[in-house]
From TrEMBL:
It comes from Anopheles quadriannulatus. This is Dynein axonemal intermediate chain 4. It is found in: Cytoplasm, Cytoskeleton, Flagellum axoneme; Dynein axonemal particle. One of its GO terms (biological process) is cilium movement. It comes from the Eukaryota. Residues 159-181 are annotated as: Disordered.
């Protein structure tokens, strides 16, 4: 390769005279270097084999292919004076949109950043680059096969469609839409070995069978039959050293789960209609013509087992998260003989299986009370006759308690008559308040370990003098004629406990002397107040679901009394005759309905009706069987009644009044109606204002 110099007239690069003179006169090394390089580039030639192979100029021609030839450049461009701003260029072969190229822009004050040595008054040369639009490049095209009705060819397309539909059909077609291809299918076959069968016969004599059974171990079991005094004997045979199949099945958790599900299915075939009534799937029609308010109880089924026959139902608690689950405590009631105080049971029943309980817990002493937790519904607190408290997790299939009370720190040996879960904000801890026969009020905290952390809150003392409220004797005889009461114990028995529905740290305790003590968890060993409400022991105290200031109490003095906080006298008194009231509760669906239980029957009271006698009284079981427990279900349409024989009857409330829309207003009007005969008390109640939530 060789290079030679060419004539400047035939091959050279020149700029506008004004720009060239400005570049030659410039002191910038950068501008002078660019001009020299361009001139040297245009003087070079590359001949190869006698042929000029010099590369063409990289800059596109501005006025055609020979725009940069000096001779053509001089002919086509004549600068006007020395002012670069007024210089114009020819307009030949200019595309559209380049009209502004005829005028050279004003570059005064513009400094090239690549030449920091340029001063503000010096001018630089500029190169113009033209950008033109290229042809469109189609990457993907999906032509449409749909024609709008407004298009010109719409009529022609409709005619083609009509001819296609009316053509002679040579093949079967179907109108269907599809976006994918048909799924290809593949046929497969599997070869297996042939199963060979063989008939085998054997002869066994009576002597062989006799010798065989004598060599086997014989086990005979007796099973009690429900509702019958007879027993069923079952004999099983096993080889020596062979594991008993019954023990192995009892240790299998999957077998117990499968058995429970199977029992639910079988029970559903028998109790289907009763379960539908319990769930209240077909509520009564309020528009029917034959409406009668009879306050009737219809027994749906009865919870009973052979193991608990003769064990009184001491307590019952419905699960707050699942209204189908109820826990029953079997233990002691009243003056139970010492022979029957050997053991106790807690059974967890489900309405899906009214025949067999789904959880069975056995204790070495009678059980007195049970309660489900509202914060953690699977936890069940159990109070025992020997003063212990246990917490069970019903989701655990084992018999191991979650936690038990520790007697090493604070021993309690008297019966626990009632307990409640603490519901106020206590840093997320699960705590239980339990009251015992010796007057102690204990708080147990569930910890990580196996023991409950005990904390004594209070020990009740006998009320001295004349407390505010009702007289303890219930008579208005002179002081010299009243009987002298001899105190056998300085500490009364705590029979029931209730937590305030709004002030969760405040609790009420009913005692055997007919007084109610109210205290606070935040103030241990302190009394907030005491009120004499009955002349005998108070068995139950419950607030109305529609008012945080109205509550009822039931006692052994044969009466149920309704109270308002801050009033020392009852506003309504309901008498049952000559029988102590074991329990009484408000209906969760009707604000004026109250259910109570005595030894002889179940009473339903309606405050809108007369209060001299209950609206209805129902006897369950035999006449000699005492009733012990009554509880409304969570839905309020059914009632659970327990007796002293270990049976729990689930009853449906039939022919009941329909729940009012404004529950508190109905309760208020019913109470005002009861106070018509006592205008002074009525005036005091009205002055208290609104008592609802």
């Amino acid at each position: 390769m060789s290079s030679s110099h060419a004539a400047p007239s035939s091959k050279s690069v020149k700029f506008y005279s004004a720009s060239l003179s400005a570049g030659a006169a410039s002191d910038s090394k950068f501008v002078v270097d660019i001009v020299n390089r361009l001139e040297e580039r245009n003087r070079l030639q590359v001949p190869i084999d006698g042929v000029d192979r010099t590369p063409a100029n990289l800059a596109p021609p501005f006025f055609g292919e020979e725009a940069f030839v000096w001779s053509r450049f001089r002919e086509q461009f004549q600068p006007l004076a020395n002012d670069m701003e007024d210089a114009t260029v020819p307009t030949a072969d200019k595309p559209d949109g380049f009209e502004n190229f005829e005028t050279q822009p004003n570059y005064e004050g513009v400094i090239d950043r690549r030449s920091p040595s340029l001063e503000a008054g010096q001018k630089t040369y500029h190169v113009k680059i033209r950008l033109t639009e290229t042809d469109d490049i189609v990457l993907f095209e999906s032509p449409s096969h749909v024609v709008s009705l407004d298009a010109e060819e719409a009529a022609r397309v409709q005619e083609q469609n009509r001819r296609f539909e009316t053509r002679p059909k040579a093949r079967r077609t179907a109108d269907a839409e599809a976006q994918t291809r048909d799924l290809p299918c593949k046929s497969r076959s599997v070869n297996t070995e042939c199963i060979h069968r063989q008939d085998v016969a054997s002869f066994v004599s009576n002597y062989d069978m006799y010798d065989t059974y004598n060599d086997l171990e014989r086990h005979t079991k007796e099973i009690n039959v429900a509702d019958s005094a007879s027993k069923l004997e079952i004999t099983t045979y096993s080889r020596e050293g062979m594991e008993d199949i019954d023990e192995r099945l009892n240790r299998n958790a999957n077998f117990h789960l499968s058995s429970m599900i199977l029992q639910r299915l079988l029970a559903g075939n028998v109790y289907r209609e009763q379960q539908i009534r319990f769930r209240n799937m077909y509520p009564p029609d309020p528009c029917r013509e034959d409406i009668r308010y009879l306050y009737r109880l219809d027994v749906l089924w009865t919870y009973r087992t052979v193991e608990t026959l003769g064990k009184p139902v001491a307590s019952a608690s419905w699960c707050p998260a699942n209204g189908d689950i109820v826990a029953l405590a079997y233990g002691i009631y009243g003056h139970t003989g010492s022979d029957d105080r050997g053991c106790g049971f807690v059974y967890v029943w489900n309405i899906k299986n009214p025949v067999n309980p789904e959880r069975r817990y056995r204790f070495d002493c009678p059980v007195t009370c049970v309660a489900f937790s509202r914060r953690t519904p699977q936890l069940l607190a159990v109070g025992l006759y020997d003063g212990r408290v246990q917490v069970r997790d019903i989701t655990d299939t084992t018999q191991t308690p979650l936690a038990v009370s520790n007697r090493d720190r604070f021993p309690v040996y008297q019966p626990i008559w009632d307990l409640k879960w603490v519901e106020f904000d206590n840093e997320g801890k699960d705590e239980v308040i339990a009251v015992s026969q010796n007057g102690w009020v204990m708080k147990y905290t569930l910890t990580i370990g196996q023991y409950l952390l005990p904390y004594p809150l209070l020990r009740l003392d006998r009320v001295e003098g004349t407390p505010e409220g009702q007289t303890s004797t219930g008579t208005s005889a002179p002081a010299d004629q009243q009987p002298v009461r001899v105190q056998s114990d300085l500490h009364p028995q705590a029979l029931c406990v209730t937590i305030h529905p709004v002030q969760k740290d405040k609790y009420y305790i009913g005692t055997d002397e007919g007084a109610v003590h109210w205290c606070s968890i935040n103030d241990p060993f302190q009394h907030l107040g005491v009120l004499q409400m009955h002349s005998r022991g108070i068995f139950c105290l419950e607030y109305s679901p529609w008012s945080p200031r109205i509550f009822l109490t039931c006692s052994g003095d044969w009466s149920i009394r309704i109270w308002i906080e801050e009033l020392p006298e009852p506003i309504v008194t309901l008498c049952t005759g000559f029988a102590p009231v074991q329990a009484a509760y408000w209906s969760p669906t009707n604000s004026t309905v109250i259910a109570s239980v005595t030894r002889s029957g179940v009473q339903l009271w309606d405050l809108k009706r007369r209060s001299s006698k209950p609206a209805s009284e129902t006897t369950l079981g035999s006449l000699t069987t005492a009733l012990t427990v009554v509880r409304f279900t969570n839905c309020g349409r059914c009632l659970l009644v327990g007796d002293a024989e270990g049976k729990a009857h689930v009853c449906a409330l039939e022919d009941m009044p329909f729940p009012p829309h404004f529950q508190y207003r109905e309760l208020q009007s019913a109470l005002y109606g009861k106070l018509v005969t006592t205008p002074e008390l009525l005036t005091r109640v009205k002055r208290m204002g609104y008592l609802g939530y």
